[in-house]
Amino acid sequence: MTFGAADKEKIYVVGMGMSKEDLTGRHLAVIRSGEILIGGRRHLDLFDDTRVEKILITKDMERLFLQIRENLGKKRMVVLASGDPLHFGIGSTLIRTFGKDRVEIVPNITTLQAAFSRIKERWDDAAWVSFHGKKDTKALLKTLAFNDKVAVYTDPVNSPARVAKILLERGMACFHMTVLSDLGEKNEKVRQVSVEQAAAEEFDTPNIVILKKSAEQTRSLPLELGMPDDRFEHKDGLITKAEVRSVTLSKLRLKNDHIFWDLGAGSGSVSVEAAVFITAGQIFAVEQNEERVRQIETNRERFGVRNMTVIRAALPEGMDSLPVPDRVFIGGGGKVLPEILQAAIDGSKPGTRIVVNTVLVGSMAKASEILEKNEWKPEITQISVSRGKRMPSDMRLEALNPVWIITGERPAKKQEGKNR
């Protein structure tokens, strides 16, 4: 390869792969052409005998950008990047900062490719997420919620142990865990560990984690909205019907990071479909009846909902240990519905929405009265559903029980004022 004066107007970003052994003749030609080498300590040390100016990449990226701007057009700069520069690497940052016309990428094998090659697994069906430098778990949990094979990029703080602890906290210990450290180095390690084991250990850095569910644990049914009732395990018609379920979920206005209580969860159909929206939050299904608890657990596994905790408890006592909710659904309760609703109101925060479903006029009136008393401005909707039923020569409509849907939301300003 030959380089001219015009190349000084560009920033060359070279992927180092896993080690110096992954560098081809093209990679090395670009690196040797550099009048300034930019990289982390590990990469710069590989070219310690190359007598050119070197710039160490630190956490101060603004200083790095200033140094690059000062040298653009004056000296040919080569940035040494881990793996492939455009796969969770510095390449995207440099393109975003200096523009596509200023940056040339020389790709290499990614850490992801190397990791899956070590465990001899295909990776075209895998999802991946960077937990490197992240302060929250939203992206991680969302990826885990809908995928059975996930690669996680870690860092010393967001370590394999922390990933394992998050899995245990969210009831996702069903994943098998492989930790690969120092890939491409002499002390490379590939370890398969249980989630429980990983949570109590320290691992060499840098590392990457691969999480995989076994074939028998993978989700067998797709998770969708408005699923037919017969897809759920239930008995004697004790299930929130598909049409009512859809309207109920729309009234809840769920977001991906919400804490959701399903009180008197029955078969758990509302909790299961809530998982379509809640991917980084938590779902708590509380039910007293032992047989229905088993049905909820069956439905949770059938649809692979990994962020749902099933609690067998009588209400309202079973709510005491739950985290403060963003959304609450009350689909049961009977005679103690007023106590359950009031406890949910007392345990709420500004902006919490509560949706109550009932077929009883008296329960509708009582729920509305309690919400009004607490200044939650109840909204009342009645859903009447008729389903087509085939006859020998035609079709007729068969009505289901009308359902009252009562919705309330805790007002922010007035409630905050009361709490001062």
Key terms:
3 domains, Rossmann fold, 420 residues, alpha/beta, Methyltransferase, Cobalt-precorrin-4 Transmethylase, Domain 2, five-stranded parallel β-sheet, Cobalt-precorrin-4 Transmethylase, domain 1
Brief overview, please?
This protein is of the alpha/beta class.
Describe, in plain words, how this protein is organized in 3D.
With 420 residues, the protein is an alpha/beta fold. It has 3 domains: 8-109, 3-Layer(aba) Sandwich (Cobalt-precorrin-4 Transmethylase, domain 1); 112-217, Methyltransferase, Cobalt-precorrin-4 Transmethylase, Domain 2 (2-Layer Sandwich), CATH 3.30.950.10; 229-419, Vaccinia Virus protein VP39 (Rossmann fold), CATH 3.40.50.150. Helices cover 30% and strands 23% of the residues. The protein has 14 helices and 19 strands. It has helices spanning 25-33, 41-45, 61-71, 90-98, 111-119, 138-146, 160-169, 195-199, 242-252, 269-274, 290-302, 337-346, 361-373, 412-419; strands at 11-15, 36-39, 53-56, 77-81, 103-106, 127-130, 149-153, 176-181, 189-193, 207-212, 259-263, 282-287, 308-312, 327-330, 353-358, 379-383, 386-390, 395-399, 403-409. It has a 7-stranded mixed sheet, with helices on both faces. A 5-stranded parallel sheet has the order 3-2-4-1-5, with helices on both faces. Strand 8 (176-181) and strand 9 form a beta hairpin. Residues 415-420 have low confidence and may be disordered.
